[in-house]
Amino acid sequence: MASASLQFFAFMLALFGVFGDITATLLPNWKVNADVGSNIITAITQMQGLWMDCTWYSTGMFSCTLKYSVLSLPIYIQAARTTMVLSCILSAFGICITTVGMKCTKLGGDAASKGHACFAGGVCFILAGIFGLVPTSWYTREIIASFLDQTIPESSKHEPGGAVYTGFISAGFLLIAGVIFCTSCFKKQQGAWIYPSKQHHFPSTEQESNAGYNLKDYV
């Protein structure tokens, strides 16, 4: 029962991780203009994401421009696009697979099949968490390096936006959920190996007793 509750908790973490992963991929505020120097008095908030760049004016106007050309983007943005999409796909597969493998569901067949499905879903979550953690870390590193570069003017400096933090938290949720699923499945299999089912058969004793009864019948 405790293992089933733990799997359900991991499944809820994975759901939050999937939703956060998709949200972080689509949000346009991976980096925002930093409020330093002369930028403090500006009435414009500029945001840059993986797919579009947006500008928010103090008057309430909001405009976005899509990034159509992929080759013109920096390499870290191209890598972030690819890895975040892979993270979303793997986490969605993990949700489908663990739904079959969880103990609290009636899908997946016998216990061995459910255990294998649970382990496969946990691996998908771990890979999704890694794919989500790599682009957010790389993107943050580029933002910090650009911010600390003295040759870049203050008007062109940015700081991490909400999408980066959402990506970090989502990757953490997916990693924790994947480890819980894989660990619960491993413990179950290990217990089966250490404590095998005890089935005692005494064919010789039964044969001797049957032979004794046969001999008595002839006396």
Automatic annotation (TrEMBL):
The chain crosses the membrane at residues 75-97, 117-139, 163-186. It comes from Galbula dea. Pfam families: PMP22_Claudin. One of its GO terms (molecular function) is structural molecule activity. Belongs to the claudin family. It is a multi-pass membrane protein. GO terms for cellular component: bicellular tight junction; plasma membrane. Keywords: Cell junction, Cell membrane, Membrane, Signal, Tight junction, Transmembrane, Transmembrane helix. InterPro entries: Claudin, Claudin_CS, PMP22/EMP/MP20/Claudin. The gene is Cldn20. Residues 1-20 form the signal peptide. It comes from the Eukaryota. It is found in: Cell junction, Tight junction; Cell membrane. Its main location: other. Claudins function as major constituents of the tight junction complexes that regulate the permeability of epithelia. The keyword Signal applies. This is Claudin.
